[in-house]
Amino acid sequence: MLRQFKGKFLLKSESLLEEFIWLNLNKLLKINPLKRQYIVNNKNRTDILGITKEGSLAIIELKKKGDKGSIDQLIRYKKNLLKYSSQSSMLSEVDFKRDFVLIAIAGHFSPQVKEYASNKLPEVLLLTYEIQKAQNDEYSLILRKHNDKIYSRVKIDIIEDSLFDSLPSFLQGYLIDTPQHRTPIVSIIKQILSFSSDIKFETSSNYNSNGDIEKSLLFAKYNKKGGIINNKVCAEFSYYYNSKNKKDRLTLRLYLPTVELSIRGIKRHKLIDSITIITDDFVSVNQLIDNNTVISKARQVSLRYPLKTAEIDEIYSSFEDYYINYRKYMKSRQSLRPINRSDFTLVKKVVQMTLEDWSVR
Question: 2-156 in CATH: which number?
Answer without folding.
Answer: 3.40.1350.10
